[in-house]
Design goal:
With 319 residues, this protein is α/β, with parallel strands linked by helices. The chain contains 12 helices and 11 strands.
């Protein structure tokens, strides 16, 4: 039975990745930060180890005991969303640097066959059609971009067999942040949407996990892949479509000229920086080389599945 270790298995993406790898016959060990995270990993069929994801010694011991062939670093995905008004990104540059460094130290002198590092599609900045060979940028000297690019470079320059996936913004029925928008709709609260002309790249949790599972299975060492659904859309249209899918009217937006006020009241500088970007990412390489294709090829389909899943599972997103 092949063995995989997931660092950050208690992320929303990690939960779905555990489920899919277990279904493929993997013995999955999830490295998590809390008892609740451990319970979720076990409920999806994996083993769970509570550990400090910044402690290389603890990570090394967990990886040794799991006899892992493949390591999936999903710790960057704790924050890969526009749905939290940037709150998940605050200070995350330090977390990203610490967790990446600790994991690379932990896997030194091990016999793992592949380290999969889950990065971000937005690192291309403003571009019309980014491929894996397009340069990465740091708009506005932002520390999140700096840390994310530095983490990729650390992985690429390590002595380990690696593969990097640059994922679109994640969403799906697992997203607690997405559920909170329903409460905002009910209360009539406006949200800061950014320019409607600025496009972002999105990816359903199930499709992201499928890509990770295919990379774990096929082990394309040394490769970088973009993983997005292929239908870039502005944050404005994404959230408005979510409201329409719920049968609600178009929600109110915070006007662009009120951005400074929005920053003070709700939105972090990281959110504003991300919404300044208009990025169209090409994911043909992973489709051609690994045969991956998204089940949800647009946000419309993915949001419909999200709402239907909540309804089917009798989930009540709003208290």
């Amino acid at each position: 039975m092949p063995s995989a270790v997931i660092a950050g298995a208690d992320t929303e993406l990690g939960q779905e990745t555990v489920r899919q790898l277990v279904a493929l016959g993997y013995q999955v060990t999830g490295l998590v930060k809390s008892k609740d995270g451990a319970t979720t990993v076990r409920s999806n069929g994996g083993l769970a180890v509570e550990t400090d994801l910044t402690n290389a010694a603890e990570l090394k011991e967990a990886i040794r005991l799991a006899k892992a062939e493949v390591i999936l670093n999903l710790t960057p995905q704790f924050a890969n969303t526009l749905l939290s008004d940037g709150q998940d990104w605050k200070g995350f540059d330090k977390t990203l640097s610490a967790t990446t460094s600790a994991l690379l130290e932990a896997i030194k002198d091990t016999d793992i066959k592949l380290l999969i590092h889950a990065s971000y599609a937005f690192l291309y900045g403003n571009t019309a059609s980014a491929t894996e060979n397009s340069p990465l940028i740091v708009p506005g000297d932002d520390p999140i971009f700096k840390a994310a690019i530095a983490a990729e470079n650390q992985v690429a320059q390590s002595s380990m067999p690696t593969c990097v996936l640059r994922l679109g913004y994640l969403y799906g029925p697992q997203s607690e942040d997405l559920k909170l928008y329903i409460k905002s709709f009910k209360l009539g609260r406006p949200y800061f949407a950014g320019p409607v002309s600025n496009l972002g790249n999105w990816l359903h949790f199930e499709d992201a996990a499928q890509a990770l599972a295919q990379v774990a299975k096929q082990q394309p060492i040394g490769m970088v892949f973009n993983v997005v659904d292929g239908t870039p859309v502005s944050f404005t249209n994404f959230i408005d479509q979510f409201a329409f899918t719920l049968g609600r009217k178009r929600p109110s937006h915070i006007p662009l000229w009120l951005t400074p006020l929005a920053l003070v009241l709700v939105v972090t500088p990281q959110q504003v920086e991300l919404l300044k970007l208009s990025t169209h990412v090409n994911s043909d390489l992973i489709r051609q080389q690994l045969g991956w294709s998204p089940r949800y090829t647009s946000y419309r389909e993915g949001l419909q599945q999200t709402v239907e899943t909540w309804s089917h599972n009798e989930v009540k997103p709003v208290l």
